[in-house]
Amino acid sequence: MSGRSRGRKSSRAKNRGKGRAKARVRPAPDDAPRDPDPSQYLGLSWGRKRRKRGTEGSMDTLENVQLKLENMNAQADRAYLRLSRKFGQLRLQHLERRNHLIQNIPGFWGQAFQNHPQLASFLNSQEKEVLSYLNSLEVEELGLARLGYKIKFYFDRNPYFQNKVLIKEYGCGPSGQVVSRSTPIQWLPGHDLQSVSQGNPENNRSFFGWFSNHSSIESDKIVEIINEELWPNPLQFYLLSEGARVEKGKEKEGRQGPGKQPVETTQPGTCIEVERMVLGPHVSIT
After folding, report:
1. Is 152 contained in some domain?
2. Model confidence at 39: pLDDT above 60
3. Model confidence at 267: pLDDT above 50
4. Residue 174: its pLDDT value, please?
5. CB atoms within 10 A of CB 246
6. CA nearest 266: which of 282, 281, 251?
7. pTM of the model
8. Which residues pair with 152 in a beta bridge?
9. Looking at the predicted structure, is the pLDDT value of residue 268 above 50?
10. Residues 121, 127: Cα–Cα separation, whole Å
11. pLDDT at 241 over 80
12. How many domains does the chain have?
């Protein structure tokens, strides 16, 4: 092959190479898809990492705060138990003293029951007679968490039953519902007040009907009254009858007209003497 022909081929090959090179660097049209900017990926990745770090930081802080709350709750529970034990002992001392003083007032608890405006509606004439033998009442809470309680009725010897103490207890059953049980009453012949009222729809509104009934615990009005009103302050209900006698005395004195003023005395059974016996001689009574 001559040198001239070689030169022509070499020139054509060079021209083809230039054409291909020019084709490679040709600008793309405006509507052609373009590769995304790598810096955008870097920005998105950094934002995700930042949010992730912020969430992790909030979770760590939240866990620390929750842990502090749990520790504080545990401290409060321990402090509550300590205070409950301390004041429970102090309260028990006053309750024992109150019970001792009430023992010196015949018929105190029976009169307090009869004077309570709501409890009185549950008492028939025979039950009022039975409660006249009631010499003591106790409400015992079961456990510091107050999961239940016992109501204890102490009786003097009487012609109705042999029991010296009748107990009705409330607590939580296996499935969490409230359950109750009571002492079987050993009635003496001819004095069974439950059998007399059996079949009577008013039986549930009697005191001993309530004592032996365990079906309507959720709407137990008597136990609510005893726990929240009678047991905390029986004196206020006992004195209702004393107040009535005082008012009657004032009315009688008004009808008789002015006369010689009576000398104030504190005989057993009067309002002032009863308050001193129950509250103690150190309490000032006006």
Report:
1. yes
2. no
3. no
4. 76
5. 13
6. 281
7. 0.59
8. 138, 167
9. no
10. 11
11. no
12. 2
